[in-house]
């Protein structure tokens, strides 16, 4: 007999937060966001050093709500940085984790989330899943050129939320996603600006690695020659340079914090430097939106602003004033990642959709185990 109720543990490692939720089918039993102070995050040299810290945060939530891991039908994590793959739901396996640990496809703590989900799932005998990972790749060929053959532009962005918000936007415009031409801007610890064309993200900045606007904890695109000089200045090791780009760049580098609420307070109290840096971040975001509008040949039906920073009216206004001439602006503060992870897992558990196969690997955790 087919199982009717699936209980899911959803985990989402963001650069500034850990989100934990429990779903029973479509219903949210609880959903919590644990914010991590920049000083705490700064004390880790590497994202993989955060493994125990993040796991403890997750287990603290699970146990304090009276659950054991073995009571779940699956653990679903946002993540990780795998090979370029098609969207969908994947059973996390060793090959995916080896690619994530290698750092070849970038470094983000959502990869650590996948490792935690896999380890907890293995111990408890339940599958670990992930949905629409950041390296989902739908970019058109011309978007992949960098300017030198040695470097190919990679798709690495908030794929899960970008897609979820684009679908929500389609519904709000009484259309389907596959007939929509829109720009989605995710304003989180990292910032991604995606050009969505008829159901596909045909171009998007790499939100992790030196591409697009600077963000709360990332440097974004930099003047390349100056960057090369800095790399060879003897001041920084390769690891330190990479950390400066991703983790210690952007707002935290200029202002010592990634926290929008704190910055709003500072600006209200007259902090001119904070105001200037926020103006500059908004400036870089609007330039990226302008570029995405050209990718869509100016046929932009709406611009959606989402992510934690879309809660911040001051920033939203700074962006809107420069791009509202392009298309109507729709605001979707926060994200729909937890729900999207749960729905992606439910679709495969209910056999409404097949699990995607990770290239060149065999699944070493059987989905059948949880039915
Ligand atoms: N109400 C708010 N006002 C201003 N900034 C906010 C608000 N809520 C969240 N943020 C900011 O949003 C960012 C986190 O966004 P989020 O999408 O949760 O990112 P992540 O998943 O990377 O942790 C942080 O900079 C946080 O301070
Ligand atoms: C790979 C992009 C994912 C990302 O940047 O997420 P956060 O904004 O949550 O750090």
UniProtKB/TrEMBL annotation:
One MF annotation (Gene Ontology) recorded for this entry: butyrate kinase activity
Lineage: Bacteria, Bacillati, Bacillota, Negativicutes, Selenomonadales
Stored Pfam families: Acetate_kinase
Transmembrane intervals: none
EC number: 2.7.2.7
Source organism: Sporomusa silvacetica DSM 10669
InterPro entries: Aliphatic_acid_kin_short-chain, Aliphatic_acid_kinase_CS, ATPase_NBD, Butyrate_kin
Name of this chain's protein: Probable butyrate kinase
Claim: Nucleotide-binding is one of the keywords in the record: yes
Entry annotated with the keyword Cytoplasm: yes
């Amino acid at each position: 007999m087919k199982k009717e109720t699936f209980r899911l543990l959803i985990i989402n490692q963001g650069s500034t937060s850990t989100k934990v939720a429990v779903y029973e089918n479509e219903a949210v039993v609880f959903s919590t966001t644990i914010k991590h102070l920049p000083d705490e995050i700064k004390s880790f040299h590497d994202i993989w050093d955060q493994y125990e810290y993040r796991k403890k945060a997750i287990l603290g939530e699970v146990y304090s709500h009276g659950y054991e891991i073995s009571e779940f039908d699956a653990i679903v994590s946002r993540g990780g940085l795998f090979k370029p793959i098609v969207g969908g739901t994947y059973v996390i396996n060793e090959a995916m984790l080896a690619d994530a640990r290698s750092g070849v496809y970038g470094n983000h703590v959502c990869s650590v989330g996948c490792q935690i989900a896999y380890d907890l799932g293995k111990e408890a005998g339940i599958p670990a899943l992930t949905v629409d990972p950041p390296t989902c790749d739908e970019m058109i060929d011309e978007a992949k050129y960098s300017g030198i053959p040695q470097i190919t532009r990679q798709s690495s962005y908030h794929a899960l939320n970008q897609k979820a918000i684009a679908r929500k936007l389609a519904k709000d415009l009484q259309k389907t996603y596959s007939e929509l031409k829109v720009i989605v801007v995710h304003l989180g610890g990292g910032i991604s600006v995606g050009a969505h064309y008829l159901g596909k993200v045909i171009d998007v900045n790499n939100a992790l690695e030196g591409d697009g606007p600077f963000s709360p904890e990332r440097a974004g695109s930099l003047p390349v020659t100056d960057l090369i000089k800095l790399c060879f200045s003897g001041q920084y090791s390769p690891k330190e340079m990479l950390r400066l780009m991703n983790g210690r760049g952007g707002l935290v580098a200029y202002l010592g914090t990634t926290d929008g609420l704190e910055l709003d307070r500072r600006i209200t109290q007259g902090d001119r430097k904070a105001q200037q840096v926020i103006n500059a971040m908004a400036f870089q975001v609007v330039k990226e939106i302008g570029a995405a509008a050209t990718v869509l040949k100016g046929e932009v039906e709406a611009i959606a602003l989402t992510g934690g920073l879309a809660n911040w009216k001051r920033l939203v206004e700074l962006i809107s004033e420069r791009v509202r001439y392009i298309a109507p602006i729709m605001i979707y503060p926060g994200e729909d990642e937890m729900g999207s992870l749960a729905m992606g897992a439910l679709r495969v558990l209910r056999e409404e959709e097949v699990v995607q196969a990770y290239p060149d690997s065999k699944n070493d955790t059987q989905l059948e185990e949880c039915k």
